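REVIEWER CHECKLIST
Item 1: Sequence provided? yes
Item 2: Single chain? yes
Item 3: Sequence as submitted:
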Amino acid sequence: MSIALLMTACNKNTDATTSTDETTQLDAVQAVAVARVSSSTANNTSRGDSIYAVNTCERNQRKIKIDFTTLSSTITSYLNSNYNSYTAKGAVEITDANGTVIGYVAIITINDKPIAIKFDASGNFIKVLELRQGIDIFNDRKFHPGGCFDGRDGKNKDTIALSNLPLVITSYISTTFTTDTIIKAFYTRDSNIVVITKTSNGLYANVFNKNNVLVKRELMHHCGCNGKIVAIAAADLPASSTNYSTTTYPGYTLKQAFKVVDNTGKVKRYVAFIDANNSKYAVEFDANGSFLEAHLIH
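Item 4: Structure as written out by the authors:
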């Protein structure tokens, strides 16, 4: 997936670069194009082949492309802390009708996947913007079957039955992480496999590449409560945690939810393993469903 930084205007009388119909449709979601669907279409100027970050601003606001290096230290510190080894791809300054700066969008890639992150004027994190293919924007839909984001149908077609995990992976986990229990496994769009495991002291995401070699082991939650981690249904998550995920990761899909309980059965934490635009996160909440922290898995 090659990266481009193209812009369509929040105010359709400024920076208009499309036909009238396309401008109107893109204007409705205030979009910034951040990537091409694949390298094979990198030289194709069709907006249907582009991936856009949507809802970057409101009507009568304006987006101005700026140099990534001019972003504040507050923003870059956030990116360095939460997106280790990211690649900077672009930045946008958002101004109101009077020209006052009201926010920024930083565009980065992790593992060649684009991520667009919105910040306020002071550089405080707001949310990870939803991405859509241009063809879906033009047809007023969030995804289409076979498209980049068809996992939003919530059917979890990428789930791997544990009995179908490659033997080399299950053997590696059993011999290298002897106390791990495998809970869930998923394919990623780039043919990697994410295996979620739990131990007596935590919940882990293990990422294996297409050659079944471990490339990352991420601690999703450290269980310091001497209790246990239990897989739960989405309906068992507190409403406040679901609302946070919906607001902060628009367009996300829940892959698996967990609760962490102590020895008395009292809930201490919740962990939601989600897919936001093909980037997977573990998002932690306290017992009341208030946000604690998020970890980028892949």
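Item 5: Key structural point noted by reviewer: The domain at 162-296 is CATH 3.10.450 (Nuclear Transport Factor 2; Chain: A,).
Item 6: Recommendation: ____
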